[in-house]
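In the previous chapter we treated chains in isolation. Here, by contrast, the input contains two separate entities that must be folded as one system, with a combined length of 537 residues.
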Amino acid sequence: MQLYLQKHFTDHYRFYGMGMLTIFGLMTGIAVLMITVARDPFRQLSDLASFYYIGLFFGGMLFTSRAFNELGSKEKGVDFLMLPASQFEKFITLLLISSIGYFIAYHISCYLSFKIIENAQQAAIGVKIEKDYLFLDNPKEKVYIYYGYFILQAAFLLGATYFHKYSFIKTVLSVFVFGFALWLINCVIITLIFGFGNEFWKRSVPFLLVGKLEGGPFSWHTTIYLIPKWLQDTYLFMIKFVIAPVLWTIAYFRLKDQEI
Amino acid sequence: MINIQSLTFSYRKNKPLFENLQLRLEAGHIYGLLGKNGAGKSTLLKQIAGLLFPDSGICEVLGYPSAKRQPAFLREIFLVPEEFYLPKVSVKRYVNIYAPFYPNFDEAAFYNYLKEFEIPRDQQLTEMSYGQKKKVLISFALATNTKALIMDEPTNGLDIPSKSQFRKVIAAAVSNDKCIVISTHQVRDLDNLIDSIVIIDGHKIIFREDVQTVTDKLSFKTVSRIEETTGILFADSNVRGHTIITRNAGHEQSKIDMELLFNAVLTNHKPIQEIFN
């Protein structure tokens, strides 16, 4: 695997280097411009959180969707598939680079960027950034964002095995179509269970809860009907441990079945 | 070495490219895979390399099913595709990255092949022409010492001196444990190089004989007056007269004309096939 990793980095170091520099440059550049030109300081770290999450998700998914870019070109595809390494080695290398590799590189880049923003702001307008937001240290709330990141990463990795060109856009569309299909199925199920009255299908979170509008004519309130605890726990278990590994496994078998 | 049995494959439904294809290729030979454009030469090579999977049938190399692309299989097969990719590194760096994947790689031989092709060893691959890059890839392919070496149109993009260098290098590289398959539609490029001919046409292998058998059974001549010769199986006219193929009744040795044989097999398949049955 070390050999394949070395080969992979030789082919892609320019792209990886430029990608990280772009993210770092964009994040730092936009924030520093806002401070120096608009004289609009970031008072709390939470003001920078949106930059962080956009970079994490958008950058991560864009990066992951290029994982099997070689297969979009006949020449590179032959080189990729004919190299004497197991398909598993090739897959696991790309999985590690696009998930954990990006995650680590992104956080280093973010840390440096935030440090520069903080120093630039203090030097330019003398305002300190209050540390009111802990990105990774709050398991109760924010840890699910990272589960979401890995699930989306797995979806985009799977997408990259299906779409070798314009993989990012095609995967985004597929995720939307899939989500819409789930919503439609949920609407049908909700309507079958509760009927058309009270428009239950409008007030529902697919496969999670249904809201019933009660009261009136002047005072309305919604009563929430949640799925049972055991089903909630099953969902949580799936989000934490099942969905991403299942998508990765499908992506691996898709890679094994690639033809040129 | 390469075993293909009852292979059926199609890119589109109801339009088979191969139907029940049978082919066995042994070590110690250089096979010329000949066929018209679109006959399926590249597709057959891809099947052998495991880049395409059969719809049905068997395709094995050294007992490994090609489609599984196991590392042990990939270590023993090298494909030189018609269009290929080389990373943007120097020749030396390329060897450092790729050679460790091939346990029998011979670095000294690689640089000898480069010398034979007149490629400077310290040059960047990006600074090379298409033909030079191809020569680097061919040199690397030979130096890997894989048991199966398959080349798809390797002489495309090579200039005339390079084509003869190519023949020389390949002829020197063949050994008893190697099977080299070269596909081309430029049949003259393989003159004096291949020792077995495989012709593919109409979804099938229509001709598969070694060169010695061909010259034992067929005679290739140039005559000035075609009317005076009998038993002509195939004739082609040119400025020097008529090149013809006849049955080699007198057991005389003639030099095989690959292009003439290829055209003969395609246009007058039945009588020629009868001679070899």
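Chain B is about 30% helix and 30% strand. Chain B has a mean pLDDT of 91. Compare these points with the single-chain example from earlier in the chapter.
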